[in-house]
Amino acid sequence: MPDETQQDNARERQARDAGVEGLRALGAAVQVSIRVLVAVLGLLLIVSLLQCYVVVKQHQIGIVYRFGKPRQELKPGQHALVLPPPFEEFRAYTVTREKSLETRAFLPAIDTATTASGAQLDAVLRPGVDGYLLTGDQNIIHCAATLYYWVSDPVAFYERQADGEKMLKTLLNHTLLRASGALGAEDTLFSLPRFAERVTSLLKEEIQASGLGAEVNRLVLNSTPPRQAKSAFDAHIAASQRADEARKQAEGYRARLANETDASADQVLALARSEKSELERKSQTRATTFEQVLVEYRKNPQIVRRELYMQTLRRVAENADETFIIEGKDGREIRMQLGSNPSAGRKARPEGKTP
Amino acid sequence: MNEPVRHGRNLWISGVAVLFGAALVTATCVFQVRITEVAMVSTLGRPGKPVSEPGLYGKLPWPFQRVYTFDKRVQLFEGQYREILTKDGLNLVARLYMAWRIEDPSLFYEWVGFDTADSARILSGLLDKHSSDVLGQHALVSLVSTRPQQEESIRAIEQDIRQRIQAEATRYGITVQTLGFEHLGLPESVTQAVFSRMIADRERLAEKTRSEGERDAKLIRTEAERLRAEKLSTAEAEAARIRGEAESEALKHFSVFEQDPEFALFLRKLEALEQTLKDKTTIVLDRDIPPYDLLSPGSLKDAGGPTPAPKP
Q1: N or C: which terminal CB in chain B sees fewer CB atoms within 10 Å?
Q2: What range defines the domain where residue B150 resides?
Q3: How far away is chain A from the Cα of B168, in angstroms, using its nearest Cα?
Q4: Which residues neighbour A97 within 8 Å (Cβ) at sequence distance 6 or greater?
Q5: Residues 67..86 of A with a Cβ closer than 8 Å to B: which?
Q6: More confident call, A34 vs B184
Q7: Does residue B238 contact residue A272 with C-beta atoms inside 8 Å?
Q8: Which of B70, B85, B118 is the last residue of a domain?
Q9: Which pLDDT belongs to residue A69?
Q10: Could you report the per-residue pLDDT of A313-325, keeping only the tens digit for each?
Q11: Is residue B312 included in any domain, yes or no?
Q12: Are B214 and A246 in contact (CB under 8 A)?
């Protein structure tokens, strides 16, 4: 019995020792776990503190959110958050840089391989596959557009919209559809500035109404007629060009004729003025001469008359190309070269006549 | 290791553990609503009021209260291409879009849940139903037309569809912010007829443009010639007036001729004679006219000169 009692005591002591050892081991494990936890928490704290340092780039704007609420706007540069994440969050948005967005929703889905091979193109447009716009005069056109914009309100554009860019593209498509639906085909194809102006105006209204937080810089449109009717449009363009050319030529003729007319009218007036001066001068001279000669004439009218007559005849004969003196009875003719134009006389001399 | 050191360390570790525990408890009693979210707090499974303003809010820990957050940003929903019959019996292929957002998360959770596919299904159904109804009441010219009121007309149609959808969407906790056409076209078979019409129209326009150009050019030329004739006529009239003025002036000088009108006439004749025979003239004169009468045989005898030989 004593042996059994001793054995029991020994087992009991062993078990107590083992329990103590186990408790010690557990305590050590808990200590290690807590140390690991403290280390992790410390590491998280360091990471959080590092995240308090933020940089806003030149073309960006930074927004600090405290508990999800926009608290502060940060300009480009280095900044420190007051509280570490997750209490404060920082987001940087590109705002000052111009962004572009292209829509090809209204272009046909052309199989480039088919086009290159010269195969017959489809005679119809398939809804959902080929894009196009209906114009106000119920024609069909294709259009590609590139919108240049910038984000004026980053919170509205990036945080209040699930996808601001996609929304903007949808609004652009919508305004293209609305603007083309109010214009004729010719306006949308050949008056692109007018078309673009209308689309831009509508798009600005839509952006404003939806609070998208974007500003339109410019819009570039490229409209084309459908390939199925392109040759007819080309013929119309050619006819327009010919008509313009005809108008231009007529305008040129009008300008030239106006210049010529002005010159002719000026000439007529100048001639009339010149004749007026000449007539005035002559009448003055004639009156003066008459008065002077009249004195002598009254003294001896016959001599003065004869003298004046002879002088006049001399001047007439001198100026004449040829002068013929004829005698009526025997038909003889005397030809005389008088005046100062001998060449004319030589040329006009007929054969067989007595000089 | 001595007892005080061990005691101090245990105290520090206990402090950290308490802090950690306190942080965990706090985390279960507060929730944050971001700017992009709307939250709903349910108490013992009963939905409460929505929390749409961003910020930090308190709540009872689970299982007493539970927070559900939803995306409150504006979502874009694009409908399917659908063929719609207009009032004037024309088929149109239209595709509409909607910009929508969750307004009341309780209703949205109750009717839609968290599955976005369900919301798309609901929106698609509403869009199809109301777009068909509204477009069926309007003719094609209400949508595409060069009339000045076209823009107002299409805007009114879009507004009508939006309001009808909104009336039903409210019970799902959804607000439809904007709605519009993203595509408006014609059935495939109709496009070919449109192309034929477009070609015919362009040919007619080309002919019209050509004839207009020719007509305009002709008008311009005619007008130019009319202006020329008018200007020249005016100039001639002015010239005539100037000449008349000159003659009137000249007449003033002629009063001196009244002293001897016969001599004045003689002088005028001489002047006229000289003027009219000034250039390129061939004169034929009789030998009896002085001074050529000196060439007559008898004239020398009268003057006392030599007598010419008798004629054979």
Answers
A1: C
A2: 75-191
A3: 21
A4: A59, A150
A5: 67-70, 86
A6: B184
A7: yes
A8: B70
A9: 87
A10: 888 888 888 878 7
A11: no
A12: yes
ipTM of the complex: 0.71
> Residue B208 — very low, low, confident or very high, per pLDDT cuts 50/70/90?
very high
- B194 CB within 8 Å of a chain A CB: yes
According to the model, what pLDDT value does residue B115 have?
76
- Tell whether B248 lies on the interface with A, counting CB pairs under 8 A: no
What would the mean pLDDT of B295-308 be, rounded to a whole number? 57
The architecture in CATH of the region A99-111+125-225 reads 2-Layer Sandwich (3.30)
Tens-place pLDDT, residues A126-165 = 888 889 999 999 999 999 999 999 999 998 999 999 999 9
Is-above-0.90 flag for pTM? no
Here the CATH number for the domain that contains residue B149 is 3.30.479.30
For residue A6, give the 3-state DSSP assignment.
helix
Residues B121 and B83 both lie in one domain: yes
Chain A nearest CA to B90, separation (Å): 12
Interface test with B, best of A43, A180, A242, A247 (most B CBs within 10 A): A247
Instruction: Please give the interface size between A and B, counted as residue pairs whose CB atoms are below 8 Å apart.
Output: 353
Q: Which residue of B has its CA nearest to A272?
A: B239
> B158 — contact with chain A (CB < 8 Å)?
no
State which of B31, B50, B70 marks the end of a domain. Answer: B70
Q: Write the CA distances from B301 to A50, A327, A330, B286, integer angstroms.
A: 151, 18, 20, 20
Q: What is the pLDDT confidence band of residue A169, given thresholds at 50, 70 and 90?
A: very high
Q: Is residue B130 in a domain?
A: yes
A 5-44 residues with CB < 8 A to B = 31, 34, 37-38, 41
Determine, for residues A301 and B263 on separate chains, whether the beta-carbon distance falls below 8 Å: yes
CA of B167, closest CA in chain A: separation in Å?
20
**B83 and B43 in a common domain:** no
Q: How confident is the model at residue A349 (pLDDT cuts 50, 70, 90)?
A: very low
Is the Cβ of B35 closer than 8 Å to some Cβ of chain A? Answer: yes
The answer to whether the peptide bond before residue A127 is cis (omega within 30 degrees of 0) is no
